[in-house]
Design goal:
Elements: H1 2-17, E1 24-30, E2 33-34, H2 57-60, E3 76-79, E4 83-89, E5 112-118, E6 132-138, E7 140-141, E8 146-147, H3 148-154, E9 158-162, E10 170-180, E11 191-202
Copper (II) ion is lined by residues 17-18, 21-22, 105, 108, 191.
Length: 246
């Protein structure tokens, strides 16, 4: 009976939260400089999650969340080693301080992660087969039971990290992601929100990070993907590979 009660509570969270609680990464800042709303980011019109870790829609969204048209053909220049800020909001309309689910509903707790993949052409349509490396992650802090998403909300949707200083110059996709775990007790249930930004990395070095594939990097049985977060956790295992550092 206990698990039935937990499931009912979870169902209430899903029903109460899902229609009004999603989010889109829609603006970027390079060393603090705003690059403009939706410029250089493959944003969808609909803000819903991907839940199938085997889907190609896990790479750069799309599919059930149709891309906003026209897709940006901008490629944003970013010096290797730069400070990079990604900004999320509930809908593609941007910040809405009167919306309690902006930038994302507080129920949507989970980690925030960033990957990069080198590409021939950052505006190329096909994103399958790319080799991704993780450059940053913010998971769970056991001492106060807070999540990357809690910090994202406290920063009004902004997440700041550093682009590795040693990667090769050239064109990249930057895949920035939230994994919301409010309904993750069974798989499918975790909600994956991600968009890809189109970057030209300048400067840098000659590092060749170890890489993973999407889909492939995540499994429905990963302890960070199928998990009951409605309990006191002593730790949390962020999905995917270790973070690359120079
Ligand atoms: C890059 O890809 C875009 C979209 O497919 C295409 O329009 C453009 O011509 C390509 N650029 C180069 C240099 O190949
Ligand atoms: Cu949602």
């Amino acid at each position: 009976m206990k698990s039935a009660l937990v499931s009912a509570a979870t169902a209430a969270v899903i029903l109460g939260g899902s229609a009004s609680a999603h989010t889109i990464f829609q603006e970027m800042y390079v060393n603090g400089a705003d690059q403009g709303h939706i410029n250089g980011i493959r944003v969808p019109d609909y803000d819903g999650p991907i839940t199938d870790v085997t889907s190609n829609d896990l790479i750069c969204n799309g599919g059930i969340n149709p891309y906003h048209q026209p897709i940006s053909m901008d490629i944003i220049s970013v010096p290797a080693g730069a400070s990079y800020t990604a900004e999320w909001h509930h809908t593609l309309d941007g910040a809405n301080p009167s919306d309690p689910a902006d930038p994302i509903d507080p129920s949507h707790k989970g980690p925030v992660l960033t990957y990069m993949a080198k590409v021939d052409n950052a505006t190329q349509t096909d994103v399958t087969g790319l080799q991704w490396f993780k450059i940053w992650e913010d998971g769970f802090t056991a001492s106060d039971q807070t999540w990357g998403v809690d910090r994202l909300i406290a920063n009004k949707g902004k997440v700041t990290f550093t682009i590795p200083s040693c990667i090769e110059p050239g064109q990249y996709l930057l895949r920035h992601e939230i994994i919301a775990l409010h309904a993750a007790e069974s798989y499918p249930g975790a909600q994956f929100y991600m968009e890809c930004a189109q970057l030209q990395i300048t400067g840098g070095g000659s590092a060749s990070p170890a890489t993973v594939s999407f889909p492939g990097a995540y499994s429905g049985s990963d302890p960070g993907i199928t998990i009951n977060i409605y309990q006191t956790l002593s730790s949390y295992t962020i999905p995917g590979p270790a973070v690359f550092s120079c």
